[in-house]
Task: inverse folding
């Protein structure tokens, strides 16, 4: 079932590449074109069958009826004004940025048919080499319409996400950023700060506990710095809550209070057990 | 190759059961017997072929030539004096406790042939139902001999760990506890405190990042409270380092300092990338 004629993916990395592959595999568009700063990415994307055509220049997207911005947050903000000068008037625009308030506020001013998206999929890896349409299957994709969002555009973007296998949920950009500060950004901050304090000479003793807990700290540091800074207020609050909880645990350990310590740990255990 | 005639496992849970299965599968002893508080565990251990005989009473271990204490830390300390009144004089004793200073200090006074062990294997699961001899293969087992340790006993216990597939490393109990405070205990504390602050209604948005980072917080809370309290000093220091690192990250976010933030995150990324 074709939903679009020509889809342009800006940023053919892990997420952009996975979406491109899903669209191609499920024949949701007549043509998928890719834009990347790196020629190598485009070659690999073509070789993997993720895109039909690729270019390092934005000019290639001028006939697209859907543009998906799949670059890091700051690049989305930087590219938007350039893209608006190239695309057709009725072109739909969506993005996959990890924070939504800044992006939606800016992009809905620039594009008449913008819909903010955030597929909760991905990994610590980057690059088209790791792209896999399966990461979208049974994932959640949050859409962040506002009162300014064109309903038809929203429905069409929503249909696309459904067709690649994601379950769509609508949230305000504000609610999205608050929720993500807890379920994604804070875990990354915990992982980065945790592995940072483990003395290098002890790493050879790492077993699955340390490895799992810090896996996401192998993620791109610049990309995540951008995400954290684009969700500054929410993240600062979330870090403070984490610091307070660490203090509670520290106090119970210092007081040798096994009962209290077990209780605090158990609050976490109960929540963790609801996650599969 | 038989190393022992009769091996007794005290605590036929995840680790005890996995060791028992490994000993049985590799025919390292003529007989493996199990002791557990719970009849159900013993039945399951027998059904899985982990033990030949089981009992809720310690009396069953009196002919053993190796006793492996595979209970939580406090139970090891409590059971040791009782066990010393039952076993033969030349019986070897080892344990799999997650902290070593307290246990070694106490148990080497009680048993002439005690060797502290800590196989770095396991998961957030408990009970014999999840026991699997494969978790020991290619794992690390830390042995913590002291100047009082009988060399022959050490060599025999070390041979056993090698034969079940573990790589053995010798450390002092003090070095063990310091290292483990970073590579195991602090990750658990980070996971417990992280999941504790995520609002319950946001958990449905959890993707692999949050799940991996908090997986170990599904571990038994009482068991881990005991571990933390038995390694109090080291853990308090490790938590303070984590708090300081969180503060550095928080400061860079508050100052909107992308360069500095990327640098701090990258310190973690570089370390994480050395772990497979």
Result:
């Amino acid at each position: 079932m074709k939903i679009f004629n020509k889809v342009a993916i800006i940023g053919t990395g892990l997420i952009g590449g996975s979406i491109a592959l899903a669209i191609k595999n499920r024949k949701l568009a007549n043509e998928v074109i890719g834009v990347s700063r790196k020629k190598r990415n485009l070659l690999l994307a073509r070789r993997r069958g993720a895109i039909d055509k690729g270019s390092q220049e934005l000019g290639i997207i001028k006939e697209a009826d859907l543009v998906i911005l799949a670059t890091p947050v700051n690049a989305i903000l930087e590219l938007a004004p350039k893209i608006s000068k190239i695309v057709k008037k009725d072109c739909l625009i969506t993005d996959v940025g990890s924070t939504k308030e800044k992006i939606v506020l800016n992009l809905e001013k620039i594009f008449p048919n913008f819909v903010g998206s955030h597929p909760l999929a991905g990994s610590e890896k980057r690059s088209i080499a790791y792209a896999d349409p399966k990461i979208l299957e049974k994932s959640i994709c949050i859409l962040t319409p506002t009162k300014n969002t064109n309903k038809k555009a929203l429905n069409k973007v929503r249909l696309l996400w459904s067709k690649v296998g994601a379950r769509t949920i609508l949230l305000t950009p504000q609610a999205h950023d608050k929720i993500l500060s807890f379920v994604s950004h804070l875990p990354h901050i915990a992982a980065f700060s945790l592995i940072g304090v483990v003395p290098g000479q002890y790493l050879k003793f790492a077993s699955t506990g340390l490895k799992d807990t810090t896996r996401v700290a192998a993620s791109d540091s610049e990309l995540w710095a951008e995400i954290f800074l684009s969700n500054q207020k929410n993240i600062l609050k979330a870090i403070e809550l984490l610091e307070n909880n660490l203090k509670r645990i520290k106090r119970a350990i210092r007081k040798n209070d096994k009962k209290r310590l077990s209780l605090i740990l158990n609050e976490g255990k109960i929540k963790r057990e609801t996650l599969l």
